[in-house]
């Protein structure tokens, strides 16, 4: 299985720590950058060319602001967390799939099982 390059961003500290702990057990996922805020997303996306982005949406309308990026970067699989990290949505090739509640381990397992772009 090919290594998946991953950006991790704007997740609550506790959730980020739990996800990072789960990621340490997965050799096929490599965190190539961490977002501090939404304004750095485009630069990090272009710089690191990730296969996967795990991003917490600070408000429900934030997904609308990201829709142009979904279509501009169709090879990226977007994992969007909302409701304090309790709700998960996956956007792949601009198609949204609501996954509901997942534990950090289930989230990392799901990310690892979905094929991302090839780098």
Task: Provide structural commentary.
The chain is an alpha/beta fold and 119 residues long. The protein has one domain: Response regulator (Rossmann fold). It is built from four helices and six strands. The protein has helices at residues 13-23, 41-48, 62-72, 104-113; strands at 4-9, 29-35, 52-56, 77-82, 87-92, 95-100. Strands 2-1-3-4-5-6 form a six-stranded mixed sheet, sandwiched between helices. Strand 5 (87-92) and strand 6 (95-100) form a beta hairpin. The longest helix is centred in the N-terminal third of the chain and has 11 residues, at 13-23. It is globular. The two termini are 12 Å apart.
Overall outline = globular
Name the average pLDDT. 86
* Count of structural domains: 1
Overall radius of gyration: 13 Å
Helix content: 25-40%
Structural class: alpha/beta
Order of helices and strands: EHEHEHEEEH
Major sheet: arrangement of strands: 2-1-3-4-5-6
* CATH class annotation: Alpha Beta
Distance between the termini: 12 Å
Please report the total strand number as a whole number.
Answer: 6
CATH architecture: 3-Layer(aba) Sandwich
- Which range does the strand content fall in? 25-35%
Number of helices: 4
CATH topology: Rossmann fold
CATH homologous superfamily title: Response regulator
Spans of at least 5 consecutive residues whose pLDDT stays below 50 are none
- Largest sheet data: 6 strands, mixed
Map the helices and strands.
Blueprint: E1 4-9, H1 13-23, E2 29-35, H2 41-48, E3 52-56, H3 62-72, E4 77-82, E5 87-92, E6 95-100, H4 104-113
Parallel strand pairs: 1-2, 1-3, 3-4
Antiparallel strand pairs: 4-5, 5-6
Helix pairs in contact: 1-4
């Amino acid at each position: 299985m090919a290594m998946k390059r991953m950006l991790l961003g704007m997740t609550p500290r506790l959730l980020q720590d739990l996800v990072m702990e789960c990621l340490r057990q997965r050799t096929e996922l490599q965190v190539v950058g961490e977002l501090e805020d939404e304004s750095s997303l485009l630069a990090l996306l272009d710089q690191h060319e990730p296969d996967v982005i795990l991003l917490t949406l600070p408000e429900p309308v934030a997904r609308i602001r990201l829709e142009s990026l979904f279509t501009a970067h169709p090879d990226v699989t977007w994992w969007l967390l909302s409701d304090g990290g309790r709700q998960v949505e996956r956007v792949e090739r601009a198609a949204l799939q609501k996954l509901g509640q997942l534990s950090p381990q289930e989230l990392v397992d799901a990310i690892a099982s979905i094929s991302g772009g090839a780098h």
